[in-house]
Amino acid sequence: MTMLKTFRGGVHPLHGDHEGKAQTRGEPTRAIEPKTVTLLMGMHLGAPSEPCVKAGDRVKLGQVVGTPVGFLGLPVHASVSGEVLSVGPVQSVSAPNALAVTIKNDFRDEWAELPAPLGSVEDCPADQIVPAIRAAGICGMGGAAFPTHVKLAVKEGQFCDTIILNGAECETHLTCDHRLMLENSDRVVDGLRAAMRALNVPRGVIAIEDNKPDAIEAMRRAAEGRAGVEVAALHTKYPQGGEKQLIQVVTGREVPSGKLPLDVHVIVMNVGTAAAVAEAVIDGKPLISRITTVTGHVDRPSNLRVRVGTPVRELLEACGGISLPEDRVGKVVMGGAMTGFPCPGLEVPVAKANNGIVVYDAKEARETEETPCIRCGRCVDACPMGLNPYLLKHLCDAGDMARAQKECVMDCIVCGSCSYICPAHRHLTQTFKAMKDAIAAEAKKGKG
Ligand code: SF4
Ligand code: SF4
After folding, report:
1. How many A from CA of 415 to the centre of ligand 1?
2. pLDDT tens, 146-205?
3. Residue 304, phi then psi, degrees to nearest 5
4. How far is the CA of 236 from the centre of ligand 1 (A)?
5. Counting atoms of ligand 2 from 1, which one is nearest the CA of 393?
6. With CB atoms 3.0 to 4.6 Å apart as the test, which of 108, 204, 238, 246 could cross-link to 192 if both were Cys?
7. pTM of whole model > 0.70?
8. pLDDT tens digits, residue range 251-285?
9. How do the domains of the chain map onto residue ranges?
10. Which CATH number fits domain 289-365: 3.40.50.720, 3.40.710.10, 3.100.10.10, 3.10.20.600?
């Protein structure tokens, strides 16, 4: 195990409070059983799945209730057994009318017939691993929700020599990956080895920030004797878990502007995704549950093993509820402080990539008003992508799409470091996200 160099820029959010992780890092994961689940058909990046059940149907655990659509498509599986209550639009974290299948749990956990397990990750047929991952409906569980079978699709002329498992968990408040690495270390290594064997990759690196020494130790033990697998301790700095930042510190390679990790022969996967891959290969089981951190102003901050589709309300109840009087509740956020999204209602269901729920009080949640830029340059120093946020903000505010693109706004990873550090409280990150969305929409129109 080696201590690695760090990337340029970055920030130390909530540093004095151990990044908001102290409340839950020592909490062993406990499972909760939901009364109903609402399975969004669009939990992954790509076209939403097509529902293949109707209200009144009885479904078994692991049964396909949504079939894949298109190249990026993934199946959606029932995460409980029971009766389908409805198929139709619901509120998700990002849309008021997302298509979903809602199932009432009969608490019998009666399994559907599953694909035959492939067996040991070291001996199973390598060419069957990626199809098993797709059949299990696995997408990136660190937040991006990119379909894993597509990430592992290496085209002719390309090659991958290193798979990095992202165990950095640099986002504030979240400790679900930390607990997973402590409690299911072997499964994480199994998932990495399965991906390595599928693509014949010689090197696998499990990268963990050095604020989790127990996880580093647990993973080091689990990696012993596993071919090509090593553990790397990383400096604790946000956004250490950014894909391009991880690749740079682990391999020394820079992913050029507009290029992908595979262009420098690397694939990055989250540790939770790796554990799901191991389940699919070894047990033939689909992705129906995940660990989610529930913290902030709740009675009992926890790490919960939740069925996919469990409403946020049930997670909060399982943690004793919100510990604030109603008039002091600020907002409930899905994800951490730097990259999370405000939750538009407590019936919003947990999706495959939801790693956290954080409750803020009114003071913490208050939007600070923008004041004029004082040209201090702190945002430039903090940007891990080497961008010039104050110039970009000026261009975006002026609606100058062409110059914003020239100044590489599309390279912005929306990490929030510039907004966090800005003494003038400029709304930098949200402005860049809006500009990126507008440019992507223009490009789509051009193709369509
Ligand atoms: S949000 Fe974008 S511009 Fe701001 S620091 Fe992160 S990468 Fe740089
Ligand atoms: S940190 Fe804020 S005030 Fe300082 S240069 Fe950047 S945008 Fe301007």
Report:
1. 5
2. 999 999 999 888 999 999 999 999 999 999 999 999 999 999 999 999 999 999 999 999
3. -115, 135
4. 18
5. 7
6. 204
7. yes
8. 999 999 889 999 999 999 999 999 999 999 999 99
9. 15-27+117-283, 31-105, 289-365, 378-447
10. 3.10.20.600
